Amino acid sequence: MMESAGSKPCTTPSGKRRVVIAGGGYAGTTLAVRLGKALKDADDVEIMMIEPNPCQQALSELDLVAVGPARAEFCELWLPTLFKDLPVTVCYNRVHQVQPDEHMLTVGPRSGPHEPVSYWRLVLATGAIAFVPPVPGLAEHAVTMWSVSDAQELQRRIERQFRVAATIADRDARVKALSFAVIGGGATGIEIVGTLGQMLPKRMIDAGLDPADLRIRVIEGRPDVLYDLEPALRARARKRLAHLGIELITGSMVSQVEERSILLADGRSVDASVMVFCGGAKADPDAISWSMQADPSGRLVVDETCRAVGHEDIYAVGDVAAFRDTKDNRTLPMLAQFAIREAEHTADNIMREIRGEAPTPFVPNMHGEFVSIGPSYGVGWAFNVHLSGLPAIVMKRLTYLMYWFSVGGIKLTWKRTREMLAMQR
Predict the structure, then answer these.
(1) CA–CA separation, 343 vs 350, rounded Å?
(2) Secondary structure (3-state) at 171
């Protein structure tokens, strides 16, 4: 177990009621900061986060690391810095098991040893992992886009192909070496392929290569991309992809992946020296072993207050939770905006419980959604207004600013704003 400033062993007794937050992503970090700011010494409550990594990773910005121009640190928020002046301690470990009847969880590596941790209230915010279907060759040859390390791996593969292409005299062979494919036409896939389309030609020129040799494709099994957006916005996205020279291949699922090509179910073959898979996510697979009710997708079933069904002292928020919107009875999608709002509401509910009041229902509202297609262009909507181009990318960046301010205040927001502006030059 790692320790650093703001950390302590998981089993250290304090005599206070303990709120344990399992997971340090958007939901867990938001909840810890909001609850930490609200607590008073007289509340006699301590906050402990269980998280194996010392930094939160911002997945929506990974394309800027994978292709440029951002450094890896732009996607990382260091927990010791965020919690420096808050009553939050971090146990740098992972949740092994939850034992609701004993009001206990154990932490440690899969093979042990495990430490017991008691709680007064437990918040499960362990998130999701990349979903990779059992398509032959997919896991072996394609990189996912779910962490900073994934983004860095894509960066390495791009640089490797630049070096290979520089040594090839035959143009057809050079074009194959510079063929890139993104599998998945959702928001993550379109953001990655858009950044590839905008940034790779510039990088090729810097490397002495001809951008005319570049081939970039996005493959989507459904008839169109970005199905979460309205048709008019999808049309603008397709127009932007075409402007960047990106070929859109739709209507057929991937059936097999080989070292240098992708085979589709309709018989087509797509050259690809570098492949990225952005096909979705699934809830933390350990959650289904924690003696709580889960839905068929593996997300924990929660009530209208975000408490795990049947367990009044356990909340679940973010991607690991299956919260149903009472307006349409649909489970909320795995989006950061819902994870953040669930976390904020849960922090407020825990404060209500500290004061002896009953938790209140969480009422979800989607305020908008924006997808970047390269660092300087976006599509999306906010408050029923459609935006594209620079206004959309500005709105997307504003969501970053709002989050940075909520967890890190003015100092973090100003620091990250300067970094973001520098990347736009």
Answers:
(1) 10
(2) helix
Q: Are strands 179-183 and 274-277 parallel, antiparallel or unpaired?
A: parallel
Whether pTM exceeds 0.70: yes
Bridge partners of residue 138, in order along the sequence = none
pLDDT of 215 > 90? The answer is: yes
Residue pair 225/190 in contact by the 8 Å Cβ criterion: yes
Closest CA to 246 of 266, 276, 267: 276
> What is the token pair recorded at 143?
């990189």
Q: Say whether pLDDT at 377 is over 80.
A: yes
Which residues face 271 on adjacent strands? Answer: 261
Percentages helix, strand, coil for the chain (3-state, rounded to 5) are 40, 25, 35
Report the pLDDT value the prediction gives residue 231, as an integer from 0 to 100: 96
Give Cβ neighbours of residue 240 (< 8 Å, ≥ 6 apart).
194, 373, 374, 377, 379, 388
- Map residue 214 onto helix, strand or coil: coil
Residue 89: closest CA among 28, 8, 166: 8
pLDDT at 423: 66
Nearest by Cα to 121 from 407, 351, 309: 351
- Confidence band of 393 (pLDDT split at 50, 70, 90): very high
